[in-house]
Structure formats: structure tokens, C-alpha cells
Amino acid sequence: MRVPKLVGLMAVDAREAAETHGILLAAPDRPDFHLTVVDYVVRQYPPPGVEVPRGAVVTVWFDLDEGAGGGGAGVREPRVPRPPSGGMQRELDAPGDAFEPMH
Fold it and tell me: Which of 20, 32, 38, 50 has its CA 20 to 30 A from that of 78?
């Protein structure tokens, strides 16, 4: 059997692909892997295309290790170019003293 490409698949689809190809899946970062549905596979071992015996275990991960490119949505910040600062203060002059005596 050749290991299918599981990276990029949702957990539910990865389990289905594994079953179709006669392999078993292990997910060390998801103890509740059998309940996981919409998390995406980000890494697998052995890699796709490797010949393995029927019933072999393929390990999949859903979180990237530290330094492997993971980190969540905040990784893309700050945006370049940065938005201008100041907001309304850039548009309006600072107000004068509201209680300044009139002459």
C-alpha cells in the first residue's frame, strides 16, 4: 500500500482516506482524534507515496511544532504598510478652551 497524502485534509476526511487505503492513523497532539472533525492535518509521517504494509500506522499532526511555521492567526500581524495613526485627530484641529472668556 502507498501512503496517501493526508496533509490539508480535515480530520474526518483523513480518517476516511486512511480507511480506504487500509492504514491506521495516530494523532499524538489530539487525544480525542476519533471525535475531531474540522481540524486540518498539517504534517504526516511517513510522507505520501511511501510503500507500507496494510494496517501500518501513519502519524498525523494538527498543530505545527514551535518554529515550524505555526502560531495561529496573529502570525501575519503587523500589516505592512501600517495604517495611518491619529484617526480623527489628523482631520480636526484640537479644540480650544471651552470656557475661554469672550472679549
Answer: 38
Residue 22 DSSP symbol:
T
Task: Report yes or no on whether pTM surpasses 0.70.
Answer: no
Supply 93's cell numbers. Answer: 484641529
Residue type, 103: H
Q: Which residues of 8-35 are buried (b: 16+ CB within 10 A; e: fewer)?
A: ebebeebbebbeebebebebeebeebee
CA distance linking residue 19 with residue 23, whole number of Å = 6
pLDDT tens for 7-29 read: 999 999 999 999 999 999 999 98
